[in-house]
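Can't paste images in this forum, so I'm doing it all in text. The chain is below; anyone willing to post the predicted structure tokens underneath?
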Amino acid sequence: AYGQRYPASAHKCKVIENGYDEEAFEGAQPARHGTSADTLLMLHSGLIYPQDRNPSTFFQAVRGLIESGALDRERLCIRFRAPHHDEEVRSFAVAHGLGDIVDVAPPLPYHQAIAEMMGADLLLVFQGSYFNAQIPAKIYEYIRAQRPVMAVLDPLGDTAAQLRQFEGVYYGDIADKDDIQKNLGCWLHEHSTSIQKKTNFQNLETVKKFSRISQARLMGDLLLRVQCKYVDKTSQNN
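Text version of the structure:
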């Protein structure tokens, strides 16, 4: 985005990814916080914005899968952990007939939130077009948690582009409930298969380069290069 805004300086623009904290996963054990093992737990961890992180089309897709018999509403929990806009999420759920399925849960200490990501059956991310130039840190945490991800977003945004390097991510256009329903159905079909488990392992190897330790090294290397160029330029001027 900065490169497009300042084309003459585009070659100077470098990105250090948000990344994730590897230490937060050390010793963490999967947790479901009151949700039984035979219940399908879909989890969104973090802020929901009523406009461009609106889960309404996702709720419509879930309702369609319930009506078709692909999802059992008696064994389904869609949890929004610390969404901040609690009442808005509840009202969206009620409007789509999912008030008994959607659980709006309070904040947890960070390490417990990570453990809950590791214990969920499916991790959810919502990112509308307003946020196309932003990538939330949660996607790196989600991938590191080695759980499948359902990304409900604008397919033209940077979040979608970043997620495409990982296997086992299921996409749904946030503006198209049918597209979400189709791809959520694909995940249901592959749920708990050996293919999914293999994918999770492959993702673990790929996501390590986004640990904050790795990103800090990239920042250090970048600053050293800048310093060297500055020293060289100063020497030439003298």
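The beta strands are 40-45, 76-81, 102-105, 122-127, 149-153, 169-173. The radius of gyration is 20 Å.
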